[in-house]
Amino acid sequence: MRRKPALIAVCLATAAVTVLAACSSGAKKPGTDTNAGSQSGGVVAPGSSNPLSNGSGNTKTGYNSAANNIINPSTKTGGTLNLLAGSDCDSWDPGRTYYGWCFNMQRLITRTLVGYTSVNGTQFKIGPDLATSLGKHNADFTKWTYTLKPGLKYENGKPITPIDIKYGIERLFATDVINGGPSSYFIDSIAHPAKYAGPYKDGDLSTIQTTSNQITFNLAGPNADFDYLMALPASAPVPYKVEGGPGATAGTYTKHPVASGPFEIKSYTQKKSITLVRNPQWQQSTDDIRHPLVNEVDLVVDSDVGDIDQKLKAGTADARADTGVQTAFRSEILTNDQLKANADDPVLAATRYMAVIPSVIPNAHCRKAIFYAWDKAATVRVFGGPTAGVIAKSMTPPGIEGFEPGYDPYPSGTDGSGDTAKAKAELKACGKPNGFTTKFAYGTPSETGPLLFKAEQTALGRGGIKITSAPGDASTYYQSYIGSPKNLQQEGIGLAVAGWGADFPTGYGFFNSITNGANILPNGNSNYSSLNDPIVNGVLKDAPKGQTSVADWQKLNHAVMDSATYLPMLWEKTLYYRNPRMTNVTCDNALAFGIYDFVNVGVS
Amino acid sequence: MIQYIIRRLFGAVIVIFAVSLITFLIFQLAPQLSGTSPVFYYVGRIPPQPFQLKLLEHRFGFDLPWWEQYWHYIKGIVVGQTLGDGNTSVRCSSPCLGYSFRLNTSVVALMKAAFPVSLSLAVGAAILWLIGGVFVGTISGLFPGSIFDRMGMTAALAAVSLPIFFTGPVLLLIFEYKLKWLTNVSYASLFSDPVQWLKSMILPWIALAFLFAALYARLTRANMLETMGEDYIRTARAKGLSKSKVVIKHGLRAALTPIVTIFGIDLGTLIGTTVITETVFNLQGLGKLLIDSIRDHDLPIILGVTLIASIALVVANLIVDILYGVVDPRVSYS
Asked: For the whole model, what pTM was predicted?
């Protein structure tokens, strides 16, 4: 549920405590993309000091070159990186932020047990950060132990201890105070008394054990992806009980989160600006992930997003920290080669899809008729054209385990506008050769919802399928409108707009919330079609035990597509613009939807 | 006169009370009608653990009858209240208009920061449009059909037709990006840095005043035309009064009465509603605060800003009513 500002309306939602992965964007590049897959997997060895160790170090420049490479390599230090954002972070407390771009900013300030050594392209790598290695687990993935590196210090010179890591995670259980962040992952994963309400009320959590340099987590069940949880900013250390000092504890820790990373907060004015300067206590020798070059990072909030683009164009700002460029500047970039050379358009990690509801359209052939008749080319246009997305052929987005670029079970014709002949054949097989009528749900207010409805009304109408619009209030859309199977059935909603990405790029992270038959809830249900397929459920049951392979995820993807309950529409893209003076630039696809990885950027 | 003011003050208090009750019912209690706990709007979109939900409802007082909740809210405004964030107690001193647990700040503190911005914007723009609009309108009214009148009214028609999200970026384009006279300007308080304050405000003033001045010019012109045709103007002229005295003392003064009414309402309405201007020019005023809180569903802030905006409107109306007598002696307060 890591959020992207432009996607909030789509992604709100879900967030029942049981929800594991959530809607956002954050996918990787399709294998069909020429830039895809140049990274190789693996973990960077501790002690490496190569400033380009988190990428290929390719010196290629030009349009889209930072999407999967580190461009303008340089070791020049000093200077100030000037960033702009349309709004402030939801919180600077690492436990309470849930915006992808704020995760990216947390990379400057906070460190975690493990982190992403490579954030660009499609093959992300995680490696040790505060810990000496990735987590050591028992055979069934229910117990994970990490050993801290020696000599780790906060900005105030005090040592970072396993107790601080534990305390930071215990805070996430105090959901009445530390709210807004990805707490549910930790609460669901770590064993705890049913009514443990965090350290403020209930003190110590005995299932997390510490020694002078080790921390051990006892989990409620197997979790092979636990390292990925430890790579989320929410697992950053927080000084035990003291937190940020008087006036900056619990709910107010956001006013002074204590830096463990290479930058500390010099000044912060809520909703206006934040200035980060180098943390003198941070030592490069302990950090293989970050290789900071600039002395200062200034982030200014500018509500006039057109003004942000003008400043980017004029070179008075280096990059936009929270999202891509606006429509006007996008057009300018795409028609001006000079500007275009400084832009990137990485494919993000989310699939926009339609939930096709079997309780309303019980016959699979009728559902498949919709799949064939759907105009995916029009969908891409509705969401902003070729720089905003590519046609999705199946549910698994690029970068998630089991992605198959050539797998397209419901081809939409050569131009992506749908295959009416096949749709009609399916309608015949369904016993409704003249079509049928159903309702099309989307959240409102929404810029894209009504446009998508109109475009697909025409497309589906070619085969005789009539749709009527059923907009639902965006604030309750995912929770009780399409998140309630009963409501969908009562209202006769056969099609519902949705979008999904993973907070961490694993098959389980992507599919568990949206397809697991064991997770169907009466309210706040994120398996909107209430898919309950034995193959899908089986893979998702085995995954936490570390018993799944790429072939299993492909099997799952095929089963989801065969069920004709989730109709993939597009994998998102976003166009970003970088100041040519920035060095060591690459896109952070792992945490931030392709926004530049600012912690390692320098200025020439 | 005093009696009238007291009577109007009393009326204003009743209106503000009614507004506070209605806004409270809408924002605080309406979520419950749709089966959503207001707690969701207090702690963020990620729900707390189910067992903590009830505790939170109790902490925020949502388990009380609505009149008791309202009573606590009103009491908080008068004497302040102590709120718990679950870990420590937060003292929200009088006037307490609520506490944003999302931003960990009292609503009043947020408004204290935003109010001077909105006030600077509204008052500065109001002065500009009043002077500009009345001047153009008066001249046009005195010389109908003249070149000045035609040009003035054409310009006014154009200005009325142009929204701020058009004129704002055009001004920025000219003065910030092309001429570079006002680059990277950010708001500063009038008292700490008057020059910076002026630099940050001049373009928003012009954009906002441009729109309103057009309306005022047209209104003043119509009133002047009507007034200058009145019998008492002819009498004043017949008495041998100078032209300027006739126009200013007898014509303009009468023509201004309806302008004052509109002006008061416009000025009051602008406090908390200049969302587009504040967004275009990156000013963190009440309008921006309101729109941000609506987007974030941060109910305490929405409630507080709505209340303050309503009070601004009521107070502006009150001032207008009192000013009537000054502008037009024919108005009787009895």
From this structure: 0.82
